[in-house]
Amino acid sequence: MSDLSLIVDTAKTLHERFGAAPEVAVVLGSGWAGAAQYVQDAQGIDYSELPAFQATSVEGHVSALTVGRMGAQRVAMLGGRKHTYENGDCASMAGALRSLKAWGVRLLLQTNAAGSLRPSMPPGTLMLITDHINAPQRSPLVGEPGNTRFVDMSAAYDPELVAHTRQLAVDKQIALGEGTYLWALGPQFETPAEIHMFAAWGADAVGMSTVPETILARHAGLRVLGISLMTNMAAGLSNEALTHSATLHQAQSSSAYAAQFLTDLIVSMAEVPSLHD
User: Which of 9, 97, 123, 245 is most buried (CB neighbours < 10 A)?
Assistant: First the structure.
């Protein structure tokens, strides 16, 4: 079966199971899974039932899609993503994201756990992603045909929705950092020398996801918004050893805080006219 056939079948399955698509789809990264408990009238489906979706093997990620509403806003929540370091393929999320677009989703709201490069954003801080750096310079669009592969990334993170999120944080009196997220391939953590270089490039946070999905989403015509949860100071900026278990522990300790802001943000999306016209 061709990739296009998988996408068509997946979109059809989503429509048959859940009806019309919600405007908003959310990728739940490490530390963000708690937001799923706030979904009202929730219905779920495993990735294994969606032909174009790939399951993830990363601890803390659940390979299932939850659809429901938060306030007046309907939402689809992806319980995890396939990372490039799992299989070497930076286009592993292509089928899932293109299926969401084919179903009728308009916005991909990405969340992740990241290492902070700024003392002003200690662990537990949320950061609104305003831009990104593709450090490996790998693209999930390699091999795509036609001129649509030349995607404009000058405003990859939707300026209107960035401004909306910024204002929401002010209204809710939430400390929300802002900055540039750098994608490192992983799965090993970065060296102090690499972090020093990334800081010189202008990176504010570093992680092992999000950028390939943003490229794929923009190629598909989805709007993108991104928020990082700082789970550690990057290598060389503290005395703590970097481990995945420590990252998960910090993510879990900040989960309720992150989940509440994400819930408030999704609820507020019902008030954004351009998502509903």
Answer: 97
| 57 vs 41: CA distance, rounded Å | 28
Q: Is 139 a catalytic residue?
A: no
Q: 87, 31, 2: which is closest to 259 by C-alpha? A: 31
Q: Please give the C-alpha separations between residue 110 and each of 188, 225, 228, 243, 275, in angstroms, as whole numbers.
A: 22, 6, 8, 23, 16
Catalytic residue among 144, 199, 238, 244: 244
CA 65/CA 77 separation, integer angstroms: 6
List the catalytic residue out of 42, 49, 55, 85.
85
274 is catalytic: no
How many Cα atoms occupy the beta-carbon half-sphere of 53 within 13 Å? 23
Alpha-carbon dihedral sign for residues 115, 121, 122, 125 = negative
Q: Can 112 be counted among the known catalytic residues?
A: no
Nearest residue to 182 via CA among 162, 165, 199: 199
Residue with tokens 């859940």: 18
Mean pLDDT per block of 10 residues along the chain (277 residues) reads 82 96 94 89 93 76 88 94 89 95 97 94 94 97 93 97 97 95 94 95 96 97 97 74 63 77 96 92
Tokens representing 9 are 């079948």
In terms of C-beta density within 10 A (0-12 exposed, 13-18 middle, 19 or more buried), how is residue 22 classed? buried
> In the numeric block, which tokens belong to residue 83?
């990372």
Beta carbons of 220 and 101 less than 8 angstroms apart = yes
Residue 190 is given by DSSP the state P
Amino acid 49 reads: E
Residue among 37, 43, 82 nearest 212 (CA): 82
Q: Say whether pTM exceeds 0.90.
A: yes
| Residue 88, C-beta contacts closer than 8 angstroms, at least 6 positions apart | none
